[in-house]
Structure formats: C-alpha cells, structure tokens
From TrEMBL:
Domain Peptidase M20 dimerisation as annotated: residue spans: 186-278
Segments forming a coiled coil: none
Pfam families, A to Z: M20_dimer, Peptidase_M20
Gene Ontology MF annotations: N-acetyldiaminopimelate deacetylase activity
CDD domains: M20_Acy1
Organism in which the protein naturally occurs: bioreactor metagenome
Signal peptide segment: none
Keyword Hydrolase included in the entry's annotation: yes
Protein name: N-acetyldiaminopimelate deacetylase
Keywords, sorted A to Z: Hydrolase
EC number(s) recorded for this UniProt protein: 3.5.1.47
Amino acid sequence: MQLHPSVQGLKEECTHLRQALHRIPELGYELFETHAFVLRALSQSRPDRIEILAGTGIKAVYMTPGARQTIALRADMDGIATTEQTGAAYASVHTGQMHGCGHDGHMTMLLLTAKLIHENRAKLHTNVVLLFQPAEEGKGGARNMVAEGALENPHVDRIYGLHVWPTVPSGKFGVRWGPMMAQTCEFDILVHGKSAHGASPQMGVDAIVSAAELITLLQTAITRNVDPHQDTLLTIGKIQGGVAHNVIADEVTLSGTLRVFSSAVYDQLRQRITAMINGLSTATGAKFDFKELMHYPCVDNPRPLVEEFYTYLDDMSDVMLVEPVMAAEDFAYYQKNIPGLFVFLGIQGGKNEHSLHNCHFDFDEENLLLGVELYARLLGLVEKPN
C-alpha cells in the first residue's frame, strides 16, 4: 500500500511515540503512566470531548455537523507480565512488565490518526470515536468499556481494530470473514475429597486420583463428542494440590482453557463436561466445582465489512487471507454489540524475529504507518492513489 505524503511525514513521530510508550508498560487496569501519556498526546489533537471509562480507558470524540454515521477505532493499552530481554535502548523500565503484544503500536496508530483528524477536519464526514482500552490481556476490558458507554453518545455504527501480527509479512494486512479468533474460557475445577493417612486410603477420598481421572476424561469431551472438522482445544495448564508425601489429598485445583470457534460447540462441551463431572463424582465420591473465570467471545468478521475493507487497499496484493487462530481477543465484545472488523497488521521481518508474548518481541515502527494509512483512508482523510 502506497503511503500518502501526510502519513509518510509522520515517520519520525511514529517512532518517538511507539518507543516512548514501549518504555512504560503497565498491566490490566493499572495504566496510570500510560493513561497520562495518551491524554497529553491526545490534547494536542483537540478532540471535541474526552471521557474516562473503565478506570484508565479513554474515549476521544470528534463530532462532524450533519454526520450520518459514527465510526470507532480501538487500541488496547496494557502490557504483559514478562521481563523484557530485547536489549533495546527503549526497553521497558518496569521490571516484570513489557509491551510484548504490540499494544504500544496500537496506541501509536490511534494517536497519529487523531493528529490527522485534527489537521484535516474539513475532510471528515463522519463522527469519530477513538477508544483507548485497558485490560485486554485476560481481563476483558472491552466489556467494561461497552458497559460504561464506549459505543454510545454518539451511537457507534461500526468499529475497527488492528493488531500487529508476526506471521503476516510487513507491508500486508491479514484478514478473513467469519470466525478469525477463538472464543475462549479460562476455568478452574476444584476437586474436593477427604483427607486421610496414606496408610489408610480407604478412610479418605483421594482428590489427586479423582483429578487425574478427570484430566484424562476431559480429553474425550473433544475427541469423542465434537466433529473433528470443528477446531477445538481443551488444555489443563496447572495442577495444585496435596500437602505431604503420606497424606491423601483432600483438595486439588485444575486450571485450564477451552477454545472453540462456535458458540454451539462451546455449549455442547460445557454440557458434556458437566455430565462427566457429575458421573465421576458418583464414581469416586469426590465433589467437583467448575468455575468459569474469564470468557471471551469469538472474533467474527462480517463479510460486508471485509469486502468494504478491500476497497481501501491499492490492490489485493496488500492483503493475505489468514487462517483462524486459537488466540483470543476481547475486541469480540464490541462485535457482540455492533458490526466490527478486526485486521492483522503485518510486522514479519526486520526487528521482528519472535512471537507475541515473547520476552524478545519487537518490531519496526515503520510498519505502523500502514495502519495509519488504512485508518486515514477509512475516515476519508486521504485518498488512495489512482
């Protein structure tokens, strides 16, 4: 995609903003430095109104007289709980916290888009809402943003989001219509047994043995109950339980995730897991409590928005069709309320040699200008070349 001169001219500022944000990663909703930084930068682009949502989230509104629609653009703000090992001059100054998922880049693209809006207000024919969202990483910040009015006053007609993506080549976008990122559920299963001396197991109910049986049984919930053409994953990632070598454990906690692309399959699996737990409880005497900790819907792109997206490209060489990925994204909460399109922004090559959430993750800032160009075309601030 060819960059408009006004976008190309943002290259130096793009690098500065991204690296400044990269230095100050924060987690969840506790984004106090990040929040202040974004507010300072936004103030220079003079939105008509700024609201604070979800604690440290920011909603910036640009109103256009006579506008018939409102478009929202969203960037997540939080980092991940990892100590950065890139060795970059702009590496994180917060030990144990890192922008390892590219959210510093997402904020940068929105801040630069705000600058273009301010400089080209006469070209704007829609209302624009810029959403800077906290707590994407496992805490569902989008849900709270929606609950607190992110998509109202003015009512948002559609929303767009970009995510830097290491497996998409630099200079390209990745997209698909239909399910693109998984519906996911993080859960704990508490197994309650009865403690006894290891020499007298008949006096107790062994929570560890019951948990082990459940772990094996859970895998059949997918392999023997779900159509193999339906991509589905169930992972038990953590087990905690027991107090001593010679004591029958009375409590074990299993922690895991369930990932699917269909709500119907998810409901089917939840019913099957409940049946398995009830049956195993009868067989072993243990009690099982299933606790759903976090649930993200599936990112599902409407075909009309994907086809519209194609019209903003120079040609189809700017985009690649991606396969659905099992990772989750709370952008799906916006899509549950209004039409929304989620697109991957290629960063493969250059400084990027690692996956998202890797302690060495980094990318070339110049890739972000492609995202700014897309947003600018979408809002009518620049025209694509003939």
